[in-house]
Structure formats: C-alpha cells, structure tokens
Design a protein that fits this description.
Length: 317
C-alpha cells in the first residue's frame, strides 16, 4: 500500500529556464532546467505505468510524434506514449502545436519533414493557463516557448523527431512516417464536473487526468485503488503528517490518504492509471480523516541532485 512523497529530479535542458519559481525555489546552480520529474521515493520499486513531469520552455521543443502501444511493442518496447498537458503558466504569445492544419499524404508529410515546412504545416494554437491538451500517440505535436506545463504520460522514452528548429539533432523520418496520423487532431473535450471537488480533464485509454479543488479547511479521503499521482498546483494540502506545497507530488497505489486542505485551499492535478473516471476516488469527510494514512512520510531534502544531462538524451526533447 504505497503512499509516498514523490522524489524529484531536475533535468537540465538547453530549452529550459533558470528561474523555476513558484514551482521550485531553487534550481541547479544557475543551470537551465527543462523538466522536473516526479518519481517514487525509493530505489528498486516497481516502475510506475505513468510518468508525471513539469516542463519549463524558453524555446520551442522539437516537432515530434510518439508511437502507440502496437508499434512500440513491435520494436520490443513495453508500451507507446500517449501524453496530456495541463498548462500551468504562459508568457504572452505562448503557443502549442497539435496535429496538422489539414490532412496530407505520407508523401507530402515526408517532403514537409525533409524541407522543414512541417513547422508551418502543424496547427499552432495559443496557450493560456488552465488549458488541457490530450496528445494521443500518433499525433504530431510541439510545445512552444514561454510555457510551464504539467505533463502526464505513459512511461516511455520513445520520441520521433520531425523538426528541430535548426538545432541539428537527429530526425527520425521513417519512424515518424510509420506512426504519425498526418491530419488534424481530434477536437478537445471541455472539462466536466464529476463529483464535489472533482473535474474531469482527460480520459484516455491509459490514464485519467482530473483537477481537484478543495476549499480551505476541508477534509477528504483519497481512495486510490490504482496507481495515482497528486500534484499540488495552488495552495497546499496535508497528506497524512506531511505538508505538500505547490510543485510537489504524492504517489499512491492501493492506498487511502487523508487530505486536509491548507488555509488557502488546494488545487491539484490527479492522474491515475484507469481508462475512465473512478467513482469514490475522493470522499468529503465531516471530520478530519485521521488515521487513514498508513504511515507518516517526510519530504526529501530539496533541491534533488540534478539528473545527468547525458543520461536522458532522448527524453521527449
Ligand atoms: Zn511529446
């Protein structure tokens, strides 16, 4: 019954940024950080099915596509990669690209990758805080500059790059052509209220993403029958005996945790490994849900040591 305060890894990236506030007080010695990864607290623990990150962009990331499960498995990998973004903050003019403006043939897509015109073929759209974007495997996409984004994804490192904005990294033309659906992305669904405190943002075959809003001073039971990540994005929450502030996360699996919203309430993102919203995931409690947390846990010291940049060269760059 794991209930863990997630460990974080700060991953330096040339397209990241130095000032991570308010998501993290300090970075890594003036280095540009592109990603914060949330990980299970111990070593030798079962690898989660989902990976939670916060991304910081000062330049656009590559235009890219990820394989679905069938293609990934044909290459000997465990699974493909569907991901979803929740936009936390933007600078003026920030954009994301999702799908293409119009359908093209495989031949036209190949030509657009080879001459770089793919950068004009993708459908760029303005991004503002609170936007939710599902990126199913096979959807051509990119994050523009000036974004802070929470990302939940299937646990996979496989990225096929179609365009790199002149940075000269390897493109993966054949793989991208094999997995990309060269047309417009499916229309986004609007967030929809579930039960008290819960708003459904995304339901994909691999994960559900919800926003939870807990008013100041309220108490709740989070009943996580499956792998579940809770990322605090406003306010703070007591989970068991630990205070979880903005930019920190908790991992649960087959566990129930008592939540107490802080003096300004708490807004969080809840991502879990299910194909549809789970009933009874969050119960309002009249009285403090003491004793529900299986064991006290304490936050790890911050900042976590930086991940080796060389160790993660191909991670959704
Ligand atoms: Zn991606």
């Amino acid at each position: 019954m794991p209930l863990e305060y997630a460990r974080t890894q700060l991953v330096p990236k040339p397209w990241g940024r130095v000032d991570l506030r308010p998501w993290r007080e300090s970075g890594v010695g003036g280095e540009s950080v592109g990603e914060i990864w949330f990980e299970r607290a111990g070593v030798d623990l079962a690898r989660p099915a989902l990976l939670l990150k916060i991304l910081f962009t000062s330049e656009p990331l590559s235009i890219q596509v990820h394989p679905d499960n069938a293609f990934a498995q044909s290459k000997g990998e465990a699974n493909g990669k569907t991901e979803a973004w929740y936009v936390l903050a933007t600078e003026p003019g920030a954009m994301v690209a999702l799908g293409l403006k119009a359908s093209v043939s495989d031949l036209q897509l190949r030509a657009a990758i080879e001459d770089g015109s793919i950068a004009d073929l993708v459908h760029w759209q303005p991004a503002v805080a609170g936007d939710v974007i599902l990126v199913p495997a096979g959807t051509i996409h990119a994050l523009g500059a000036g974004l802070v984004v929470a990302e939940i994804q299937q646990q996979s490192d496989t990225t096929y790059r179609l365009f790199d904005f002149g940075r000269g990294r390897t493109l993966h033309v054949e793989e991208a052509l094999a997995v990309a659906r060269p047309g417009p992305a499916a229309a986004a669904l609007a967030p929809s209220p579930l039960t008290k405190g819960r708003t459904l943002l995304v339901a994909s075959p691999y994960f559900v993403l919800e926003r939870i809003d807990l008013p100041a001073g309220t108490h709740w039971a989070l009943n996580a029958a499956q792998e579940t990540w809770l990322l605090v994005i406003q306010g703070q929450v007591e989970v068991g005996s630990a205070t979880v502030p903005v930019g920190e996360a908790v991992f649960l699996d087959s566990a129930t945790a008592g939540l107490a919203a802080g003096p300004d309430g708490m807004r969080g993102l809840l991502a879990y490994a299910a194909a549809a919203p789970v009933a009874g995931l969050l119960d309002a409690m009249d009285t403090p849900a003491t004793g529900l947390a299986p064991s006290p846990f304490t936050p790890p010291p911050h900042p976590a040591p930086p991940a080796s940049a060389a160790g993660n060269p191909e991670l959704c760059p």
